[in-house]
Structures are given as C-alpha cells and as structure tokens.
Amino acid sequence: MQRGTEIQLDTRQGRLAALGWRRAGAPRVLALHGWLDNAASFAPLAPLMREVDLVALDLPGHGHSAHRHATARYHFIDYLFDIDAALDALGWPDCHLLGHSLGASIAAVYAAAAPERTRSLTLLDGLGPIAAESDRTAERLRRSLARHRQGTSTPRHFESLEEMVAARCKVSEVTEAAARLICERSAREAGKQFTWRSDPALNWVSAVVMTENQVLDLLRHVECPTLIFQATSESQWFTRDRLEARRRAFAHARLEAVDGRHHFHMEQPEAIAEPIRAFIFEYDKPAKETEA
Questions:
Q1: What is the DSSP string of the chain?
Q2: Which residues are paired to 77 by β-bridges?
Q3: Residue 292: band (very low, low, confident or very high) from pLDDT cuts 50, 70, 90
Q4: Mean pLDDT, rounded, of the chain
C-alpha cells in the first residue's frame, strides 16, 4: 500500500498538511476525512483509484495540520473556508470532492456554496452535517459554554503505539489495521510515550448547529453530479427517514449501498475504488459545463 507523499500548504487559513497520490494532468480529487481521523484514512483507497491526481487533506486540528488559534472554535461552517483556501494553495480552480463522514458533510455543503469549483461529489457514509431542532438552541448554547469553562483536558499518554491503536478500536467500530493507519499519523512522541496530535478542542460541544431545514436547503442547491455510498449498518447520527429525506434532496444523485461498516473505504476499498474512479472520469469537465 502506498502511503502517499507529504504535502504542506501555506494558506490564508493557516498551514494545512496533506498526503498526495499525484498524477500530473489527471482529474483533480480533493479528499476530506472524518472527525478525529486524518488524511491517512484514504491510504487504502487512493492507490486503487488509477489515473487521478488525489490530495487528501488533514483538516485543521487533525493529523499534521495546524490547530486553530486558542480563541477560535471548530465551527462546521469554517471548514468551507479551509477547503476554498486549500484549492487556491494547490492552484486548482476546481476539483472533484471525495469525503467520508464529517468530510462528506463538508464536501456536500461546499458543493452547494461553491458550485463553480466542484466538478463532482462523492460521499462516503455522510449526507450533510448534524442538525438540531430550533427549540433546542438555548440548551445547546448552555452546554457549549459550560464545557468550554472546563478547559481542555490533559492529553492522555500511551506507552506504545499499540496501546493507542487498542484505544481507538475500543471507541470506534474499526479494524486494527485501519486504526493503526489513523493512529500512526495522529501520534506524537512525548518522551518515551505517545499522545495525540489532534486538538483537544475538537471535542468541545458546538455552540450552534444548523436546523434540518437549513441542511435540506443546502443539499437541494448541490448542482454537480453526486455519488453516494451508504453503509448498510444503522447510522448512529440519523434516523432512516432523515437519511432518506436528505438523499431525495440531491438533484443529481446516484446511491450505492455498501455491505460494511462506517470505515468501509478503509476496510474494503476494492469494493468502491473503481466505481468512484469511473464516476470521476465520467464527469471530469468544468463545473459550468457539467451543470449545462
């Protein structure tokens, strides 16, 4: 398995790290990982997607990318500006977006906000951001302030990388091999021990989230062709009815079911690599031309 080439991007949003599987002149693909994952989560899939120029970002606060300033928050909407800045730093006027989980949510909303920069959209087990009922706004804001007053917790230290891998497997349904890829990039040596590179502030409660109607409005404004891969296991975030309503909101979407778990792109990449590659090549044309 090819682990990818390290990339550093100095952007107007700060320093972003990435892994690249680069092919000059090939369709440009920007890959976005899930919450508390990192760019290495695409290492099993990227080498199988022949003839594309793929760059997998470490989102801010994740992997080797810089953390946000101590006075800043990890609001969902701010990630859109990171993606925009990353494309500029890469010199890409547009690209195909490939996202998993949180990364899929970011990709979908970015496609709605910047249709001129999105040739196609591939979503892996993610159909837009977490939403909340409007009458829960005050409750959420109170929880967010209370959590912030506690400050960040002391980072946990581990005696070995194997201990980190075991801890990751314990809190998320993922194979040991997949967890190891993520942990190797997320680990930072602290003397003879290891700790996480990721920003502890990523665990704070979001002060404000969108309502479901706002999410549906954004998904209805995705103009590019969309390929959706959904794991057959139940989602911990959304009901079946909500997922179905979100699928129907896309104007130009194709749905593929995957018999796997949330990290199926790491655990069985062979099942989805060729369909994604074929989809990207089918729609590798400027966004305005695709829309027409």
A1: ----EEEEEEETTEEEEEEEE--TTSPEEEEE--TT--GGGGTTTGGGSTT-EEEEE--TTSTTSPPPPTT----TTHHHHHHHHHHHHHT-S-EEEEEETHHHHHHHHHHHH-GGGEEEEEEES--S--B--GGGHHHHHHHHHHHHHT-PPPPP-BSSHHHHHHHHHHHS---HHHHHHHHHHHEEEETTEEEE-S-GGGGSPPS--B-HHHHHHHHHT--S-EEEEEESSPPSS--HHHHHHHHHH-SSEEEEEESS-TTHHHH-GGGTHHHHHHHHHHT-S-HHHHH-
A2: none
A3: very low
A4: 93
Pairing of strands 14-21, 28-32: unpaired
Q: Which two tokens stand for residue 186?
A: 């997320």
Largest Cα–Cα distance of the chain, in whole Å?
Answer: 58
Q: Which amino acid is at 28?
A: R
Angle at CA of residue 272, ends 222 and 248, nearest 5°: 30
Rg over alpha carbons for the chain, rounded to the nearest Å, is: 18
Task: Count other Cβ atoms within 10 Å, centred on residue 237.
Answer: 15
For the record, the structure tokens of 37 come out as: 């994952």
- Do the Cβ atoms of 97 and 279 come closer than 8 Å? no
In one letter, which amino acid is 14?
G
Which position has the token pair 């990364």?
103
Between the alpha carbon of residue 232 and those of residues 40, 124, 171, 240, 265, the distances in Å are 24, 12, 20, 11, 13
Q: What confidence tens digit (pLDDT) does each residue in 57-85 have?
A: 999 999 999 999 988 889 999 999 999 99
Tell me how crowded residue 25 is: count the other CB atoms within 10 A of its CB. Answer: 7
**Which positions ≥6 away from 109 have C-beta within 8 Å?**
76, 77, 80, 128, 129, 218
Q: Is the pTM of this model over 0.90?
A: yes
Model pLDDT for residues 257-279, shown as the tens digit of each residue: 898 899 999 999 999 999 999 99
